[in-house]
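Technical annex, item 7. During the second reporting period the consortium partners agreed on a shared format for inverse folding records so that results from different sites could be compared directly. Each record opens with the tokenized structure and is followed by the designed sequence. A conforming record, contributed by the partner at site C, is shown below for reference.
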């Protein structure tokens, strides 16, 4: 059985990638195909799915700053949306009930409210995968979307506690002891080094926090998220995240497959799920309207709202709970699963055109912006240096130091991670916070002073998006970029980038040149 679902997941994932869709859509399809073909999900698939979600929430926590959750646009934006959504969705369900549409006509106010509540959440798995695949986790709109998801997860856990009567035990207060032993945990993380132990340490922390919180009757997934946030300030947090990345992606395949195994749908159920999908544009409009009302710029509001416009796996949890208590029929679980799967597919397809769609309709969307903007959305005018390095990771910092080592200091850095900018400033580097994929940023600075843009980014799609924005802002200077593989280098050169460096080849050349300098003059 294990080989069968791996085979179908691979074939469907490859088929999705071939037509330029995310592989996760193929995994969803594979689950439904296997279910219709008569296969049953075994325990290993459930374990894989649970592992994927736990590790994903832990890695989210590693990249999340607690203070971001207390921003008005996050907690108030999430709260306003939840309340407004439930009111609108209850009205929608009532209209369908008055129209005597099956399943809806049998709902009373309590069960209708439960369904509305379940559909108010956005999928953590879908949104995080989407942002990671597009390299947007650390962007302004990525952080906003993740903050909303975390608040939603906390609300979801609170609901489950109230609905199931699973009250945290008195021993839950002992979790405060984590603050006491944090120095010890930090020392152990530092001591494990950089090899396979750092990966094992990541698994230990993620799964250990899950079990620890379950012991005191608190949902384990929330524990993984909170412990990840607890350790996010550690210097090796990013390294642990990278070590777990591929494992998390493999495990999450189990989650997408398991959706298809929920139940075998009928055409009627598919039609009812499609009716629920009509609420997706409403969810987008609500998020966009609330974000702009809270003084978020239109581009950030648009991209965040679009990524959050889907239904959550939490809907299945509420559905299963309602079925077990007799509030809903088992068919509703299938309808909710279908609605969630379709919403995943739509979000993944539509988001591929998010940046170009915003650029095309920018004039209209900008009308909803408030005149006053949040401090975080006001870009600082960079210094008048002719070279900008975008992406101040290890490659970007190396380029910065090499260019400025001659004493003229012609280069400055740009990164979408505000915490990293603060760290760079403490290191004495001239770096600025800004989203290079945002046309507003390039329009807010004097491009005539720029002669060279270096794109030190790992994602080819990010490089292409930034290049598009530079051209749209009428930048006339040169552009250079890095690529990891030859096919990526050819793709970027064909797109019009002036110079593309193969990361591994150039590292080898630099290594050889530096090493040859050790030899006597006559032997070089």
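Designed sequence (site C submission):
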């Amino acid at each position: 059985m294990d080989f069968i679902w791996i085979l179908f997941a691979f074939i469907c994932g490859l088929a999705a990638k071939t037509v330029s869709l995310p592989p996760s859509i193929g995994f969803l399809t594979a689950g439904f195909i296997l279910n219709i073909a008569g296969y049953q999900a075994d325990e290993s698939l459930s374990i894989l799915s649970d592992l994927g979600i736990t590790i994903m929430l832990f890695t989210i926590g590693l990249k999340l700053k607690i203070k971001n959750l207390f921003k008005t646009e996050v907690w108030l934006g999430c709260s306003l949306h939840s309340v407004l959504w439930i009111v609108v969705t209850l009205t929608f369900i009532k209209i369908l009930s008055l129209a005597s549409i099956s399943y809806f006509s049998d709902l009373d106010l309590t069960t209708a409210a439960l369904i509305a509540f379940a559909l108010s959440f956005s999928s953590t798995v879908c949104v995080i995968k989407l942002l990671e695949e597009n390299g947007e986790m650390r962007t302004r709109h990525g952080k906003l979307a993740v903050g909303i998801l975390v608040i939603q997860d906390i609300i979801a856990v609170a609901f489950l506690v109230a609905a199931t009567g699973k009250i945290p035990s008195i021993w839950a207060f002992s979790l405060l002891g984590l603050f006491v032993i944090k120095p010890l945990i930090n020392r152990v993380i530092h001591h494990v080094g950089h090899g396979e132990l750092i990966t094992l340490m990541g698994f230990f922390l993620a799964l250990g926090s899950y079990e620890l919180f379950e012991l005191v009757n608190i949902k384990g997934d929330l524990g993984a998220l909170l412990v990840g946030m607890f350790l996010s300030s550690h210097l090796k947090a990013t390294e642990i995240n990278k070590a777990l990345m591929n494992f998390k992606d493999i495990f999450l395949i189990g989650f997408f497959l398991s959706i298809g195994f929920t139940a075998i749908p009928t055409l009627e159920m598919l039609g009812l799920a499609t009716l629920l999908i009509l609420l997706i544009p409403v969810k987008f409009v609500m998020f966009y309207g609330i974000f702009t009302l809270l003084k978020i710029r239109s581009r950030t509001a648009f991209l965040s709202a679009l990524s959050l416009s889907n239904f959550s796996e939490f809907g299945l949890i509420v559905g299963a709970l309602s079925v077990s208590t007799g509030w809903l029929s088992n068919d509703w679980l299938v309808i909710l699963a279908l609605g969630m799967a379709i919403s995943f597919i739509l979000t993944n397809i539509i988001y591929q055109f998010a940046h170009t769609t915003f650029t095309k309709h920018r004039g209209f969307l900008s009308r909803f912006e408030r005149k006053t903007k949040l401090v975080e959305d006001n870009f600082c005018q960079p210094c008048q240096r002719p070279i900008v390095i975008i992406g101040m990771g290890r490659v970007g910092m190396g380029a910065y130091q090499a260019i400025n080592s001659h004493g003229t200091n012609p280069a400055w850095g740009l990164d979408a991670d505000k915490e990293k900018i603060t760290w760079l400033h403490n290191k004495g580097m001239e770096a600025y916070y800004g989203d290079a994929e945002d046309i507003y940023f390039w329009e807010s600075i004097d491009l005539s002073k720029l002669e060279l843009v270096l794109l030190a980014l790992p994602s080819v799609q990010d490089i292409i998006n930034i290049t598009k924005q530079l051209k749209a802002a009428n930048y006339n200077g040169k552009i250079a970029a890095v690529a990891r593989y030859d096919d990526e280098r050819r793709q970027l050169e064909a797109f019009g980038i002036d110079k593309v460096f193969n990361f591994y080849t150039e590292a080898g050349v630099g290594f050889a040149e530096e090493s040859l300098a050790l030899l006597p003059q006559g032997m070089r």
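The longest strand covers residues 478-483. DSSP finds 24 helices and six strands in the chain. All partners now use this format for quarterly exchanges.
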